[in-house]
Amino acid sequence: MKRFFPLLAVAVFVLALAACGGGGGSSDTTKKPELPLHHQGKLIVGFDVPAPSFWNGQLHATTLLHPTGFEYDLAVAIGRKLGIGKAHVELLRAPFHTILLPGKTPYDFALEETTITPDRAKGVGFSAPYFDANQGVLIAKGVTKPTSIADLKSLQTCAQSSTTGLDWILHKLHPTKQPLIYSASNSSAFDAVATRACQALILDVPIIEAQSQKQPHAYGGVAGEIDTHEGYGAVFSKDSALISHVNKAITALQNDGTISDLTQRWFNYDPSAIPVLM
Questions:
Q1: Torsion of CA 9, 96, 235, 105, to 10 degrees
Q2: Which residues, listed in sequence order, are joined to residue 46 by a DSSP beta bridge?
Q3: Where do the structural domains in the chain lie, given as residue ranges?
Q4: Which of 48, 134, 137, 188 could pair with 225 as two cysteines, CB 3.0-4.6 Å apart?
Q5: Strands (E), 119-208
Q6: The pLDDT value given to residue 268
Q7: C-alpha 89, offset from chain centre
Q8: 213 vs 157, 222, 277, CA distance in Å?
Q9: In sequence order, what are the beta bridge partners of 102?
Q10: What percentage of the chain carries pLDDT values higher than 70?
């Protein structure tokens, strides 16, 4: 999925944070310590939709019926590494704009395609990165395909609130028109592209690629990607003692090929075919 950029810098940053607050180890070698979970024997995972290919299923109140997708499978795989079976992995909808707020959380961690940044890490905890993703450009039908970043400046751009895509528009692109901003917890940004109210949506490549495949006739396609070298991490309350346990699980899942297998299963596109806009 995406170009698999080295995420050593991000990983070192996250592991340093975990070393500061996510230890939670025990010196008792005769008895395995209990995991620092909200409820022993149950793993509560935060999610949000729409997130095609990451979270699929039928939203019902605060949970997801018949869930599938990359992050769902990852949550189950992490649970198993922690000694928690699939039947005891509980899903809880946590709107994206809420998971970056400091304070206690109703879930053990959230998997919501969340880019790890130093600024965000001031208020919440992050796991080691489990996924690489650049920002991408989903254009509306009838829009001339941009071939450079400069071509984006004159378009009506849009983004989801509280995302690194919006940050990039505001602080890097500086378009001639104010970007339209939509909630990350509904389909309004995609709807705006489909109705041509927005000419270019800036959002993570795997998300817009999955949406474009899901509704190929609604959009003008994925025009390109922007080198932002981002990595997704699980989101925790600040200094959660669970971070180090999840980091070990993610490392094991990377080493045994599980994350690679899940990536190939859920994201059916060729990253090298998406041009990098310069």
A1: 150
A2: 92, 110
A3: 8-21+42-130+233-269, 133-228
A4: 134
A5: 124-126, 131-139, 157-160, 180-182, 200-204
A6: 84
A7: 19
A8: 21, 10, 21
A9: none
A10: 88
Residue 50, preceding bond cis, omega within 30 degrees? yes
The tens digit of pLDDT for each residue in 175-206 reads: 999 999 999 999 999 999 999 999 999 999 99
Choices 3.30.499.10, 3.40.190.10, 3.30.720.210, 3.30.300.30: CATH for 8-21+42-130+233-269: 3.40.190.10
Structure confidence at residue 27 (pLDDT): 38
Would you say residue 20 has pLDDT above 50?
no
For residues 48 and 93, the answer to whether their CB atoms sit within 8 Å is yes
CA dihedral (115, 121, 125, 130) positive or negative: positive
Which residue reads 């019926």 in tokens?
Answer: 65
Extended strands (E) in 11-97: 43-47, 56-60, 63-68, 89-93
Find the radius of gyration of the CA atoms of the chain.
19
Domain 133-228: give its CATH architecture. 3-Layer(aba) Sandwich (3.40)
